[in-house]
């Protein structure tokens, strides 16, 4: 297949390229293709079995680095929200219902299209720590001299570990891991879910934190509270204090990770368009940390080493 003759679509932060072929989407990937093609479809199959709208596999040519999947169109919830007249609460209610359905998934094993067995991994504390450390590996060295950065990494790492050890809810629910309105498609059949290849079994608060504290889309405090409260209403078994604790820790560490990832995308992959989102990530971190004593040590190190000028450096 000659990819040069196909219509290339706007890509994401992964190593995949997307093309529209008639009424389907061709996903091409050479690097990390096991995760981005094989495991992506396995996760989609798990979602579909639970009546969650995810792209169905049309055909596969894994040997030549591509699969063909169902086309959900181009209208994401993110695009829909650009219109000022939209009643966002109606959509957020639907999104919360979808999130509840995801949390009710119990399947851990799925046959791939190559007839191999895929197991959805657990979101271990080590994995969460490694992801948080992306901030230290990529962003911190840009603003801190090498000698000092080595010492700072040790200090930050100790704080990250302490925060993660203070999490209450363990790896018991299905976590999409990138659950935000840019990955939710509006289709005739309802809300479709894409970009699911990194799904894990993890903390019940993680996907909600991705949705509410979305680095790509700014929401006011009132909206954040509304979404949070809607989720709690449908999960009355949760201990509110413990859940909020986990939510805030995971939100902060996730946005530090995102700052690291966006810096890596620029430095390593020459994808600079994500840098403009970093100032908002800092705002989200501040919002969650400044009035919560559990983040006292983290706040001290962040404020001492990353001043307002640094945090705003990529702002338009």
Characterise the protein shown here.
This protein has 316 residues and is of the alpha+beta class. It has a single domain (74-311), classed as Alpha-Beta Complex (Aminoglycoside 3'-phosphotransferase, Chain: A, domain 2). The chain contains twelve helices and eleven strands. The chain has helices at 33-49, 77-80, 88-103, 125-132, 134-143, 146-165, 206-212, 221-233, 240-267, 278-289, 296-305, 308-311; strands spanning 7-8, 17-21, 24-28, 57-61, 66-70, 109-111, 117-119, 173-175, 184-187, 190-193, 200-202. The chain has a five-stranded antiparallel sheet with strand order 1-2-3-5-4, covered by helices on one side. A two-stranded antiparallel ribbon has the order 6-7. Strand 1 (7-8) and strand 2 form a beta hairpin. Helix 5 runs antiparallel to helix 6 and helix 7 packs across helix 9 (240-267).
